[in-house]
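Record type: monomer structure entry
Structure origin: computed from sequence
Chain ID: A
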Amino acid sequence: MPQSMERVGPLVRVGRGLRKRCARCGAQGIFAGYFKLQPRCPTCGFQFSREEGFVTGVFLVNFSVTLAVLWLAVMAWVLWRSITDASGAIWPILVACVGIALVVPVLFYPRAAATWAALDLAMRPLEPDEEATAATWMAAEHRRREGG
């Protein structure tokens, strides 16, 4: 087993997810496009969507990050208003929040998908049959690439 696939802590796994890397081995290239997470890691064979409902976890991570950014924006606005004693209109923060709510989920989606795969792996380590399936898939992929 490569050193990068040895048992690592959940923070390392989540850090890999936030960097859009495989939570199991740390490899790059787990996305086929901006929104398209590959079914398996091309390096170690880890299956990202281990059960139905994987997208629900991705939604949860993405929604949580969006809410956190919205909360920070509103708190910054409240702090600015209290410091400057400003009494302006509320529409600028509303427009900013709508923009945040539309842009952050799109920009963060790939990291949310990889992070959820990492959280799932940290909460539920691979079963022996999943490790065997990954190894079998990798062997078949290697044979396919070699043309045999």
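Annotation 1: The mean pLDDT is 91.
Annotation 2: The first helix runs from residue 10 to 18.
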